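Deliverable D5.2: sample structural annotation.
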Amino acid sequence: MSGWIGVDFDRTLAVYTEWKGENHFGEPIMPMVERIKRWLARGIEVRIFTARWSDVENRVNLAKFMHEWLARVDIPPLKITNEKDYACIQIWDDIAVGVVANSGQPRTIWPEGI
């Protein structure tokens, strides 16, 4: 498989309940940690896809702390981004809504009122 998979950090890879600072990271969500390890073992590129990366002035600091967090769960340093490109094949995220290609229709029907 060519291309990369983006994984959101907060609420997808790490528990997030409230903002506690730019370099505070929640506990790992182990099913996602294990999924990433399986992808990496298969040679699939994985990137952290996070809105935190939009804080350009904090990127060096963020990368340092995020790579340390990843090391604690035995994941090597991953590229961090907040942008997708043509090589992006999937994004795993807690707030994204999947859409059937070329249809404008959601893959999952949401409860009424949402």
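Annotation notes: Helices lie at 30-41, 59-72. The two ends are 35 Å apart (CA to CA).
The annotation will be released with the project's public dataset once the embargo ends.
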